[in-house]
Design brief:
homodimer, about 425 residues, alpha+beta, SH3 type barrels, Fumarylacetoacetate hydrolase, domain 2, eight-stranded mixed β-sheet, about 15% helix
């Protein structure tokens, strides 16, 4: 990925909040999402800048409001759009006066799903997560023999992917205790999963694989993603075809897609641990080895209802990093998903899988943090948790930083667990 | 389900081909699909009648061309539409003159996917299939302990579901022989799966389960469905999260959705084998026990390229029946899928899973018919098959018959395997 003038850390914007040191959205970021002002039904394409949202069509840089169409732009066109946005938002830009009329205060508008999600695939790139969870579900066989060869993934449900902030109710399903018959009950082991969501830009035609050398041309960008999970339902239902109702009741995605262009300064070499098999040729390239990983710091924050009511801020329960957690790169996922000719479409979403770091306190789920409920974590205020309680909210946050560059952030991916209505 | 005057076997249509004894589409059927005449881009809603397609909007019975919107009609409205279609197409109807102008010769128009498919779930209701395949993949553990409690299902890929007649290419993927490292190669074990596709009509709201007592109100109807599978890829990739690239390269659906109303005369009691556990209450109802099963005769026909070129007709390689093959009913699938609050949407597709009958010659896949390639089947003309070869076409057909009623059919679900282009 090319680092160009749009990443210059000296760039300042006439949107003053974008120049604050702690903003997620300086002029070096420019993520895309969908918003609508109060009283309007139709979604518009927005660009986050400081504490404002820029209405893209109102700038004249596009003539439509279809985010999926924008995402399907050719990479050159995307890069040109980024340069135009960067130039127009810079301090001293001739567009300032016209574009001021295209700004909305972010807190005053509704932020929706960033695009229409056609198909959603969840991968499993977190090797520390796969190993720890494998130990819990299959003690004698934690990491299966295919893991280091195949970027394991499976299809998920698109209709229940929710915008950040949208609550969902505790699901019920079949639970089975060791010595009892299964029964229908509310999940007692509700969990989050710290993931990233990779959004597809340009699609491919059915039957035409995307080679790894052009895989990143098909990636539009990355958001935060929480794949809520009911562990007790999962344990009983998942064999032989994989998780189903334990996952498809809700997933939450953050409103802003940070583009691959914005992430260019934060790329890292992608190195396999010594002794591991080399990737098959269709999953290997020099560019992928040189800069396939992305350095994204991630954090999980929990706030219970009691904490909220007492004014206690959300408590960090885990910190991780995409580059340390992932055994496969974004480019490898695109190449693998299409090697059989599978057609991807603009707006498709890849979940990364749970991004647990190597240390126990870097785990991306309560299943790991509490060793399947055998331990508890203590919250400020004294409450303890093994799994999520009604009223708990989970917020994922993320950011990229590197000496010589402006820090960029991902915003928030947050939702609250609501109690289930009485069973019918 | 109510049997009303629209099922009267004495009813004749002014569309003469609909009165032929061997038509799939007599006036007692009236399935819905999407078609477009040559030179037109937009899909229209059609009703199959004999060898003709009736343009629904041109009859004045709807004012739009959106099949998904039609499918979302309330059940009373759907039934009223069926009655109007039946009356208008009857011999002596006052509509004959006007509606003749709304007819197209079926062979002259393009038949597409019957609707936009939002989310696609594949179930696994075929207990004989699950047992046989379980024996091949897990000899010591063929039918897992959850099978008779949980209607096992998993999410599939919607973007690669193809209209009948659309070819696809042999996929490549990772294959692994027992004592060798995995390699990328074209599948050597390409298979079909004989399934039915259940289409959702009205959806439900996130968080609101559909009780089994109203589950069928949310089903629009049933089509034929072929879930093409690459068995060698499947064996290597499917643990622990289920099949992925071995399935998502292509699935084929037939053009016509036979409505639940049309199927009313062919319902059967749904009886669990003695000694099996009773379904949990959310999967049980008197109506489901009384008439949850549907008597649909199914058949698989294979025609190789050589047979096609020699004029040898497609050869029947298996016969089965939905009612004999399925351990779970359509209503149970809807109730199970939503018990956790998962939102279904009009146009969602449920694959039934492979519908193998109890006898070996009733198997719904080559995996079963050839015992994972250990045996071969011989085709007319002398060719043998263990799995599918390039140029082979598979056609699924189905029909319902019962003394005192007109036979109704499902049309054809057909596609041909094309050779893969040279590997890039």
């Amino acid at each position: 990925m090319t680092i160009d003038a749009s990443h210059d850390p000296a760039l300042q914007s006439w949107v003053e909040s974008a120049n604050a040191a702690d903003t997620d959205f300086p002029i070096q970021n420019l993520p895309f999402g969908r918003f609508r002002p109060a009283g309007h039904d139709e979604w518009r394409i927005g660009v986050a800048i400081g504490d404002q949202v820029l209405d893209l069509r109102a700038t004249g840089l596009t003539d439509h409001t279809d985010m999926n169409r924008l995402m399907a732009l050719a990479p050159d066109e995307r890069r040109a759009l980024r340069r135009s946005l960067s130039a127009g938002l810079q301090w001293g830009s001739a567009q300032e006066k016209a574009w001021r009329a295209a700004l909305f205060v972010a807190s005053s508008v509704e932020l929706g799903l960033p695009c229409r999600i056609g198909d959603y695939t969840d991968f499993y790139v977190g090797i520390h997560h796969a190993t720890t969870v494998g130990t819990l579900f299959r003690p004698d066989n934690p990491l299966l023999p295919n893991y280091k060869w195949v970027p394991i993934g499976y299809h998920g449900r698109a209709s229940t992917i929710l915008a950040s902030g949208q609550p969902f109710t505790r699901p019920r399903g079949q639970l089975k205790a060791a010595d009892a018959a299964p029964r229908l009950a509310l999940t007692q082991r509700l969990d989050f999963e710290l993931e990233l969501g990779l959004f597809i830009g340009r699609g491919n035609r059915l039957g035409e694989a995307i080679p790894i050398t052009s895989a990143e041309e098909h990636l539009f960008g990355i958001a935060l993603f929480n794949d809520w999970s009911a562990r007790d339902m999962q344990a009983w239902e998942y064999q032989p075809l994989g998780p189903f109702l334990s996952k498809n009741f809700a997933s939450t995605v953050s409103p802003w897609i940070v583009t691959m262009e914005a992430l260019a300064p934060f790329r890292r070499p992608f190195v396999r641990p010594e002794g591991d098999p080399q990737p098959l040729p269709y999953l290997d390239s020099e560019a992928n080895r040189h800069a396939g990983a992305i350095d994204i710091e991630l954090e999980v924050r929990l706030q219970s209802r009691a904490m909220r009511e007492s004014g206690i801020p959300a408590h960090c329960i885990s910190r991780s990093n995409f580059a340390d957690a992932a055994y496969w790169t974004a480019a490898q996922l695109v190449a693998h998903h299409t090697v059989n000719g599978c057609a991807l479409t603009s707006g498709d979403l890849f979940g990364s899988g749970t991004l647990s770091g190597p240390r126990p306190d870097q785990a991306g789920s309560l299943l790991e943090l509490t060793q399947a409920g055998k331990q508890t974590i203590t919250l400020p205020g004294g409450e303890v948790r093994s799994f999520l309680e009604d009223g708990d909210s989970i917020a994922l946050v993320g950011n990229c930083s590197r000496a010589g560059f402006r820090r960029i952030g991902f915003g928030r991916c947050e939702a609250t667990v609501e109690p289930s209505p009485a069973m019918g």
